[in-house]
Amino acid sequence: MTDIKHHAYLFDAVRCIGCRACMVACSVENNIEMDKTRIWVAGRGVMGEYPILERASMVYHCMHCNEPDCLSACPVGAYSKRSDGPVEYDPKKCIGCRYCMNACPFGVPHFDYDKGLIEGAFIDKCTFCPQRIDNGQEPACVATCPTDALEYGERDELLKIAHERIAAHPDRYIDHVYGEFENGGTSYLILSHVPFSELGLPALPEEPVNEISEKVMEMTIPFALGWGVVLTAVAAGVHLYNKKTETKAKPTETHEEEPEVNK
Amino acid sequence: MKLNLAIDRRLRLKPIALILLFLMGIAFVVAMVRYASGIGPISDLSNAYPWGFWISFDLFTGVAISSGGFLMAGAVYILGIEKFRPLLRPAVLTAFLGYIMVAVALLVDLGHPERIWYMMIFWNHTSVLLEIGICVMSYLTVLAIEFAPVVFEGLKWKKLAHIFHKFVMPFVILGVVLSTLHQSSLGSLLLIQPTKLHPLWWTAILPVMFFVSAVAIGLAMIIFESSLSSRYFKRGLETHLLEKLAKAIPIVLGIYLILKFGELAFAGELRYLFTSGGMSILFWADILIGSVIPIIWFSIKRMRQSPNALLAGAILLLLGMILNRFNVSWFAVQHYDPLTYVPAFMSNVKYIPTLPEMAVSIGIFSAGILAFGLAAKYLPVFESEHHEAHAPSGD
Hints:
The complex is a heterodimer. By secondary structure, chain A is α+β, with helices and mostly antiparallel strands.
């Protein structure tokens, strides 16, 4: 058991050598098929002009957001957020609608497109290795990383380490910890020497992307009830009015159409 | 005024019916392959494009073109505009079939179609998709109740038809509420993609935009479906009624345009109107064909009184608005672009729907057309005005 209150990762793009050992470790630990993975590593390739060359790699991971959009979007509540950080997915509830994939601004959840009804097609994403972290171990990817580009620990402490590292090497790092505030804060924090957009990370505001959608959903039931009452009132009013005019118009019988058509 | 709206009820298997049956057969085979071996082998959907042609066409377009049902039910029962009654049944039938088509298509698109009923027991109240699922299920029930009297009359179970007719009012109100929620919540579905959907389309008032445009689409759809069935079945056309509907279209679309451009100006996004390349072109195509031209078209009295011009105008509006639904749910959604190295599951960032994928939608659509034709032929869907036609006519 651990006493960590908010599990988090810290990824340092300066340290990453793009070896993909984390991918392999993750697949082995979680028994993932060979052609699938929960982590993927993207290399930006060699940039710049000789002799000033640089390259950068990025390890993509579930960001384990503080206010997850997948969780907000899932119609059947297959996602849940542990109070100590990890975002979990329950395949037993999943109906395969893939709305979580649309909702996630990082494009994290992925789907078994090659599975039919009998095998069962599910969503997969990083689970934060609960079988390891709940027993005081690091997640598999972190334990394997040869350059400590991936670190694991208490979120507040990792944030402190990240800011200290920026302060110690202001020439090397961009003065920003991606994930500290993005999308409401994430449990995967990123340090980089190249602009975050070049690592393929979206520019996100501090409010999670689900904010407006959740506000609209809160208004739905009151709106439905109110609209129902208005319609009932209109229908009753029109009915009464028609009855009145009908009895008034009866003696003269000038109506072209009968308002009441009951057979 | 009295029109002969009755239809010749003899069954003749025309080539068009055979073509429709053939298309349905193809869709059935493709669906079986999909159930056996997954969505991947028959479609181009990927982790970068989890939703594609099926969602844009079957869900977004299918629901939008079904909006005539609640408009006519609301007009006749709630507002008491009895003269629209001849348009009511065809509109309810279109909506009923449209929603069945949506539900069937979703059974192909869902990863676990056998679990669709989970939406009734596991509720995540922050999910827009839950609202849509609940609305589709409830509104299908309501439409079945609204359409039931027609079936009972066709079967000559007059008592049962009468009972359903008598208690239809609460269901009509429920149906209008559900439709309002449902049409608008399709817009809300994209609220969660502020960073993915192009700013020309993403706005916090997407649900309002969707509802207003659904009203215009519903009016156009009633004109379209009445005109086509009048041509195909060689029955009279209620031009004097359709003219009244056409008159409302410029007003609805006017509100739509004011909201659209007002919102863009308010959000300071007018600069994207001409500077977003392909997106700007899609935007203007959607606005011009779906709103501006129909406003001008239906503002001219001569156009509203000519059956041909009515149909042509309705088709233009529908094409423009269908493009709008495709834009919002597919063309203008910019997906996350992984960098140079990507494993197989992220590599498919371009999406072009495959033939089998489209064949599923086309097959389901064909079934809808066939069902409409059969219902129109054998059930008292198109009634004569003044309701004498309730007594079953002819053979």
